[in-house]
């Protein structure tokens, strides 16, 4: 059996096992081990590769960025920072058509700039935003859809766990990836906001029950001093983490440590943290960190197996013979990722696809930072598309409202999926949007 055939069969087996429910890291490790064994015909070589990759994969201080940003996210959620951002945005946007929907997008963008976990955003704002939108006469389908759509900002606006994972797989600077995600994230949030205003103006029955929202009464308004106090923690965290990172004061790891320290202080000042809840936060952080580290180790093994098989070189030569230029390759690549997003989760897509596609992107001379932003946006579309749509399932399980079905949520996310596709095409054909903040003055 040829090495190329072994690699091809390993890809098919990997997709089948993931779809069957096996953990992606276990699948990567097992399939890679068997693949090396078949290619070299020696189990000892496969075992040595497994041991060496386990030792080399995460033996660097930069991996400290994972637990630090995860810890920041859990502490921020515990301190109700997302809820406060929503209340402030709601009051400021109360006179705008679809204001509560835009408030959800804006507060999700703020929450994303602190946490970087889409699933956390979906869970938090399902509890915070959906009941408020229903109370003010919004359609249940729209309410759930806007939460699902805006939750994907968590993986685009830095910090982002997907960008951290991409940085490790592509050997790119995590700090540069974070910086490159700022403008595309803001563009996507702006596109959502404009789309909501258009829906509320042109097709009000898709947004409101009876075609009109209930007005906000004077008694429901908060004093300006209260609004400032509610928004202050978010501003402080964003300014410290992203400001310090962009200004060059911090590395990505140091920014994560700064964010975690400030988030801890906010949770303590607000008396949202006792010993039991602190232990729970630390335990959850440990679980996520171990899971991500295990993924990276097994992805390293998989990458080495593919390199040993010659599959990346084979794909480069095949695409060259087909005559696909950079744009053609990119469109095929994006379509493939979106299809994969319908059946498997975001991390699995990166771990399976990138070791094969990064050599091709390099062959075409593509900027790998821009390529990473485009990849993350394409992967995040999979969080909204059936049948897998992980964000949709998180919202459904968090809602626990029989009136809002899974189909309702998927239909509610459809306009936001279309907006994401439009922004993705914009990012593909206008790379400067992703790279503008990376350019040095006069460079």
Provide structural commentary.
There is one protein chain. This protein has about 450 residues and is mainly alpha-helical. The chain has one domain (about 5-440). Helices cover about 75% and strands about 0% of the residues. The protein contains 20 helices and no strands. The chain has helices at about 5-20, 25-40, 45-55, 65-80, 80-90, 100-110, 120-135, 140-150, 160-170, 175-200, 225-245, 250-270, 275-310, 310-320, 325-340, 345-365, 370-380, 390-400, 405-430, 430-435. Helix 7 packs across helix 18 (about 390-400) and helix 9 packs across helix 16 (about 345-365). It is globular and about 75 Å long.
Provide the descriptors you would attach to this structure in a database record.
single chain, 443 residues, mainly alpha
Q: Report the total helices.
A: 20
Overall 3D form? globular
**Which value, in Å, is the CA radius of gyration?**
22 Å
Poorly predicted tracts of residues: none
The residue fraction in helices comes out at: over 70%
Question: Regarding quaternary structure, how should these chains be classified?
Answer: single chain
Query: How many angstroms does the end-to-end distance come to?
Result: 51 Å
Number of strands: 0
Structural category is mainly alpha
Give the topology string: H per helix, E per strand: HHHHHHHHHHHHHHHHHHHH
Structural domains: how many: 1
Please state the average pLDDT score. 83
**Biggest sheet details:** none
What percentage of amino acids are in beta strands? under 5%
């Amino acid at each position: 059996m040829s090495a190329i055939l072994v690699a091809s069969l390993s890809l098919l087996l990997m997709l089948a096992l993931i779809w069957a429910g096996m953990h992606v890291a276990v699948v990567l490790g097992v399939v890679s081990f068997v693949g090396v064994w078949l290619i070299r015909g020696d189990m000892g070589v496969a075992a040595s590769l497994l041991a060496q990759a386990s030792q080399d994969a995460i033996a660097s201080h930069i991996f400290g960025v994972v637990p630090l940003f995860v810890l920041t996210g859990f502490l921020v959620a515990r301190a109700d920072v997302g809820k406060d951002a929503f209340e402030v945005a709601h009051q400021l946007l109360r006179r705008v058509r679809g204001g509560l929907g835009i408030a959800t997008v804006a507060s999700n963008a703020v929450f994303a700039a602190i946490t970087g976990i889409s699933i956390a955003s979906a869970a938090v704002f399902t509890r915070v935003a959906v009941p408020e939108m229903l109370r003010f006469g919004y359609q249940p389908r729209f309410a759930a859809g806007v939460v699902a759509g805006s939750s994907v900002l968590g993986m685009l606006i830095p910090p982002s766990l997907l960008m951290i994972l991409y940085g490790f797989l592509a050997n790119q600077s995590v700090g540069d990836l974070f910086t490159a995600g700022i403008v595309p994230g803001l563009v996507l949030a702006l596109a959502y906001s404009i789309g909501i205003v258009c829906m509320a103006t042109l097709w009000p029955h898709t947004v409101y029950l009876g075609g009109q929202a209930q007005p906000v009464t004077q008694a429901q308004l908060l004093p300006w001093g209260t609004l400032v106090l509610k928004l202050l923690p978010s501003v402080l965290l964003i300014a410290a983490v992203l400001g310090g990172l962009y200004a060059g004061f911090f590395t990505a790891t140091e920014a994560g440590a700064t964010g975690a320290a400030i988030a801890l202080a906010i949770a303590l000042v607000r008396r949202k943290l006792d010993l039991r809840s602190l232990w729970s936060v630390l335990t959850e952080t440990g679980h996520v960190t171990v899971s991500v580290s295990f993924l990276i180790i097994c992805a390293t093994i998989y990458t080495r197996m593919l390199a040993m098989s010659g599959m990346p070189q084979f794909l480069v030569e095949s695409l060259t013979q087909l005559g696909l230029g950079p744009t053609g390759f990119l469109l095929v690549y994006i379509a493939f990722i979106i299809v994969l997003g319908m059946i498997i989760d975001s991390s699995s897509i990166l771990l399976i696809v990138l070791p094969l596609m990064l050599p091709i992107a390099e062959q075409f001379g593509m900027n790998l930072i821009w390529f990473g932003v485009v990849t993350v946006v394409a992967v995040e579309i999979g969080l909204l598309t059936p049948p897998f749509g992980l964000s949709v399932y998180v919202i459904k399980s968090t809602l626990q409202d029989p009136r809002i079905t899974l189909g309702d949520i998927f239909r509610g996310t459809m306009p936001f999926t279309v907006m994401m596709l439009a922004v993705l095409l914009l990012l593909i054909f206008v790379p400067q949007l992703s790279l503008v903040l990376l350019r040095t003055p006069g460079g």
